[in-house]
Amino acid sequence: MNTRTLSLVKSIVKLFIGYFVCATGIVMTINANLGLAPWDVFHQGLSNVLGITIGRAHILAGLTILIISSIFKEKVGWGTVFNMLFIGIFVDFLMLHHLIPTFKSFVLSFIMMLLGMLVLGFGCYLYISVGWGSGPRDGLMIALVKKTKKSVRFIKNFQEIIAVIIGYLLGGSVGIGTVVMAITGGYFMQFAFKVTKFDVNTIQHRFIDDDIKLIKEMLVGHRKCDEKNR
């Protein structure tokens, strides 16, 4: 196995471990049963209305967001597409097999919710550091920041408030945990990045259209080489 192939395999493994860790963190916050994270309120509401699992609702919401981001001409990476699909699949796997415990104690549930946010932060580090594109929701946030010229904080808060309102109206669970996660989620992610010494500004994302251009260039080069050999 050459160096390039080995590097690709390592990136794929790291990417999918990151998705699984993210899903674990999400399920931990769900099973804490203190109110869901803002986007998960929307996912649960969607699952209630459509009669599907939360994981499938996560995938459906991600697909819709991906389409909206594409309309705003935001570039999409392979990691964005995989994020949309596999985090939802892993969430369903963990929940349907009851692999994450639940607690009747408020204290234990609260601790698990906090640990879930920390785990989610490390999961985000793992998949973002590969450089294959951010998740659909973060991609939409970036697209809206560019389009509206508003701050990241404003757009992120706006997105999550809308997600909570719609999710609540659709029957999603809102509680003290929703407020705690909305306020502290960014701090836990920042802590995970600090522990791993990860600077998100150093990442150069690779997008799908970059690979398409590379493939076209390779095909053109191969064609010219064949013509020269003739």
From TrEMBL:
Query: Has the keyword Membrane been applied to this entry?
Result: yes
Q: Which residues form a coiled coil?
A: none
TM region positions: 12-34, 46-68, 80-100, 106-128, 161-189
Pfam families noted in UniProt:
DUF6198
Q: Which UniProt keywords apply?
A: Membrane, Transmembrane, Transmembrane helix
List, alphabetically, the PANTHER family matched: INTEGRAL MEMBRANE PROTEIN, INTEGRAL MEMBRANE PROTEIN-RELATED
Q: What is this protein called?
A: Uncharacterized membrane protein YczE
List the top taxonomic levels of the source.
Bacteria, Bacillati, Bacillota, Tissierellia, Tissierellales
